[in-house]
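Class, look over these C-alpha cells:
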Amino acid sequence: MAILEVVNVEYGFQDGEHRRVILDNITAGFERGKFHAILGDSGSGKTTFLSLISALDKPHGGQILLEGKDINKQIGAEKYRRNHIGMVFQAYNLIPFMTAAENVRVAMSITENELPADQAAVAYNLLDHIGITRDKADRTVNKLSGGEQQRVAIARALSTNVDLILADEPTGNLNEEMEGEIVNILKNLAHEHDKCVVVVTHSKDIAAQADVVYKLKGGKFLDE
C-alpha cells in the first residue's frame, strides 16, 4: 500500500498568451520498502515534481496524500516537512561551520517526532552506520569529501525518524565510485529498513537499480 500518493496533479504557469503545462494530470504511488526513481531529462519537470511532494510548492490541481491525508490541507506544509520527510540534496545543503554530528543534531532539534533522549549518541550511530567514523563525525563538514558530505546529508534525513526519504539528484556531484556507494545506501534504506525512498534523477544507471521507475515526459508519467 502506498504511503505517498500523487493524485491527478496538475502544475503550470502563464507564459505570455499561452499556459505552459509542466505536470499534466499525473497519478502515482510510492510504497515503503521500495526504491523509486523519477527519471527525466533536464527541463522535464523533475524539480517541480520534487518541490510538490516535499511541500515546497503546491499543485494547481489534484492532491498529494501522505497515508490518505492531503499534505497541504490536512497535515500542513511546514509540519509535513518537519515531521514526515527527510530530504537529500545534490548540493548537500549542510551547515559548513558545523561538524557532521552537529548537522545531524540540528535536524533532530526541530522535529516534533519522538526521539531517544541521547540525541548525540543517535547522531554518531547513524553516521557510523553509513560509513562516517567518529573522527570524521567530529570534523566540520567542509573538511569532508563530497561523498562523505552526502553520507552526512543522508544521516541527517534519517535522524528525525521518518519513513519517507526524498532525494534530488543525490549523486550529481559525485564520481562513479561514490555514486555507486550512495545508491547502495539508499537502496539499503528501502530494502533493509522499510523506508520509502524517492530519487529524482536524469541517470538511467540509477533508474536501472530502482524497484519502481516513473519516466517523466510531456508532463506525464510513463511506467518503465
In short: The first strand starts at residue 2 and ends at 15. The first helix runs from residue 46 to 53.
